[in-house]
Amino acid sequence: MLNRRREQLGPIAIDLGASRVKMVQLALRDGHPALHAWAELCPPAELDLGARDAWLRTAIAETLRQRGFRGRRVATALGPGEFELKNIRLPSMPLNEIQQAAVFEAEDRFGLTPEQAEFRTLVAGQVRQGNDTREEVIVLAARHDQIMRRLELFDAIGLDAIAIDVAPMATGRCFVRFLRRAEDAASVNVFLDVGWRGTSLTVTRGAEVCFAKLFDVGGETMARAVAARLDMPLAEAHSLRVRVLQASAGRRTDPRPAGIQSELIESVSDAIRPALDQLAREVHLCLRYFSVTFRGQRPDCLTFVGGEAREPTLIPVVADGLDIPCTVGDPLRGLDGTSALINRCGRSMQPAWAVAVGLALRNLVSAPSPTPPAGTNSEPRVHAEAAP
């Protein structure tokens, strides 16, 4: 009972990925985060949207009963393909006016109106443009039907959705918890979350997100390339790539996994190389834009997370030409009680838990939220976070 009184329980984090669903609940025990409960679900790939939601309602409800989750509060995130993101520049003005102007500008760029979508803004910082000082603003947009579908799913299970985040912000929150020194307040870090549907890039300065970008290249892109090259169904190509990822885990200095024929590995690598080259170009362009926009701010590290982070040729291709240390991130680092999860999922899949852990850290770490535009009357429980 004494331990229970010293325990602060966070929300149930549910990361509804394209191919897997990850559930995490953390507890703050004597000031230290620990894994309280976790689960991973694999919806059948052949389900259509309605059947998938029905499957999720049943599977999540059963998991909540069987795996030791406590409470009804849930935090979730929209991933690539489920929200849009734009970076815009505005003249310097009061914060409430920046919010209004950013949404007005974004409506035209997104082709959406406030009746169709929720908008959130994040002022990333002041930048120089010629002789003028302007505000760099990140604008997020999510369609109402996308948000309502997510809320209806949780309402049907009896869960209270305290927030709908976006994946890049949750990823940032997962890692900035390690910034404890005074000099860390100015440190710049880049996180590349490579998932099935696509990739998100997040740049943090201290604990604040100052840049984000979405790319269409993801695991599905690579699996389709393998399927076309080897003339096999998409499901088989995906399974082959998973085997390559699992076999290569822990072999960072040698991207040739053991246990798979070298000719097959080379065919897979050749097939996905154009997609990786495209992703590398996008990342390089973003980092160049960041260095020009926020002059003098150089990233300290580029961290790869997501279900595709262990792709053996990913880091060598993206890191080529970058003068930045690159590493595969471990979202479970610093958490107590993770041995069962690691043993079950394996080292190759640890980076895939970044969004879920970032969501689970809500209310256990300090984090401001992005601001809705002034004058709006949006649902208070639905918001994306502006900073980790």
Topology:
Blueprint: H1 2-5, E1 7-16, E2 21-29, E3 32-41, H2 49-66, E4 73-78, E5 84-91, H3 95-110, E6 117-129, E7 132-143, H4 144-157, E8 160-166, H5 167-176, E9 188-194, E10 199-205, E11 208-215, H6 219-230, H7 234-248, H8 262-293, E12 301-305, H9 314-319, E13 326-328, H10 339-345, H11 354-360
Parallel strand pairs: 1-4, 4-8, 9-12, 12-13
Antiparallel strand pairs: 1-2, 2-3, 5-7, 6-7, 9-10, 10-11
Helix pairs in contact: 2-4, 5-11, 6-7, 6-8
Give a structural overview.
- With 388 residues, this protein is of the alpha/beta class.
- It has 3 domains: 1-82 and 141-177 and 333-388, 2-Layer Sandwich (Nucleotidyltransferase, domain 5), CATH 3.30.420; 84-140; 180-329, ATPase, nucleotide binding domain (Nucleotidyltransferase, domain 5), CATH 3.30.420.
- It has 11 helices and 13 strands.
- The strands form 3 sheets. A 5-stranded mixed β-sheet has the order 3-2-1-4-8, sandwiched between helices.
- Helix 2 (49-66) packs parallel to helix 4, helix 6 (219-230) crosses helix 7 (234-248) and helix 6 (219-230) runs antiparallel to helix 8.
- It is globular and about 55 Å long.
- Residues 250-256 and 366-388 have low confidence and may be disordered.
Strand order of the largest sheet: 3-2-1-4-8
Q: Roughly how much helix do the residues carry, as a percent range?
A: 25-40%
Radius of gyration (Å) = 21 Å
* Structure summary, number of beta strands: 13
Give me the strand/helix succession: HEEEHEEHEEHEHEEEHHHEHEHH
Brief overview:
The chain is α/β, with parallel strands linked by helices. The protein has helices at 2-5, 49-66, 95-110, 144-157, 167-176, 219-230, 234-248, 262-293, 314-319, 339-345, 354-360; strands spanning 7-16, 21-29, 32-41, 73-78, 84-91, 117-129, 132-143, 160-166, 188-194, 199-205, 208-215, 301-305, 326-328. The protein folds into three domains: 1-82 and 141-177 and 333-388, 2-Layer Sandwich (Nucleotidyltransferase, domain 5), CATH 3.30.420.40; 84-140; 180-329, 2-Layer Sandwich (Nucleotidyltransferase, domain 5), CATH 3.30.420.40.
